[in-house]
Amino acid sequence: MSATGNDSSLDEAFVAVWRQTLVESKKIVTVGDATYSLRRTPRHHLAQVDFEWHGQQYRGLEQNPQTKSRWAQMVRGGAKVMQFLQEGQYIGVVADGVLKHYGAEDC
Fold it and tell me: What's the CA dihedral at 92, 75, 19, 106 to 10 degrees?
């Protein structure tokens, strides 16, 4: 199963993870009834949260501002951006509270 815009509860979970991690700077993130620890990536110290939603594993990863992507450019301009992955594939991004799903045309 992948997130394609059909699951509004998953959308809400992504935005909640983004908010708790990048806006509220929480070290423990709550998703549904479960809690997950915030970690930092070793090299760039970016926020990272691995969590489960309805039996599926996801990862929220703070956008690296040092890349050449449009999302990194937004971060350099002051935006708060978090990418979401499932099974190593980018499936969505939350930028300043707005969720965008990646489709086949974005990959």
Answer: -10
* pLDDT > 90? residue 3: no
Selected from 3.40.720, 3.40.1110, 1.10.3470, 1.10.10, the CATH number assigned to the domain covering 8-106 reads 3.40.1110
3-state secondary structure of 20: helix
Distance CA 74, CA 87 (A): 25
Q: What pLDDT is recorded for position 90?
A: 95
Q: Are 101 and 4 contacting, i.e. CB atoms less than 8 angstroms apart?
A: yes
Query: In degrees rounded to 5, what are phi and psi of residue 103?
Result: -115, -175
Q: What CA–CA distances, in Å, run from 7 to 1, 10, 104? A: 11, 5, 17
The pLDDT tens digits for 83-106 are 999 999 999 999 999 999 997 554
- Looking at the predicted structure, is the pLDDT value of residue 24 above 60? yes
